[in-house]
Design a protein that fits this description.
Elements lengths: L7 E2 L1 H8 L3 H10 L6 E4 L2 E5 H12 L4 H18 L1
Antiparallel strand pairs: 1-3, 2-3
Helix pairs in contact: 3-4
Length: 83
């Protein structure tokens, strides 16, 4: 199966696809339960669509908060290793 095209999602798009508010998003990032954004410039950030999709799949599958934190840590480590 071909890999899905990845894209950058801005906060408005993240809010739309997750149904969560800005404050919830940043609080979940602080807790390690949501992927952190990627800096694009001095004043702009975006989220990797593949990371958001992985987070959504884990939530749909009923993963616990601890399992979600492990997933987010793996996603962040993979992103840092790729750079």
């Amino acid at each position: 199966m071909a890999e899905q095209l990845r894209s950058f999602l801005r906060l408005k798009q993240v809010k739309t696809v997750t149904g969560m508010s800005r404050s919830w998003t940043y609080e979940a990032i602080r807790r390690g339960e949501f992927p952190a954004p990627i800096p694009l410039s001095a004043r702009a950030v975006a989220w990797d669509s593949a990371s958001i999709a992985a987070w959504q799949a884990a939530r749909i599958a009923g993963k616990s908060d601890a399992e979600i934190r492990e997933l987010v840590a793996r996603l962040e480590a993979a992103r840092k290793a790729a750079s």
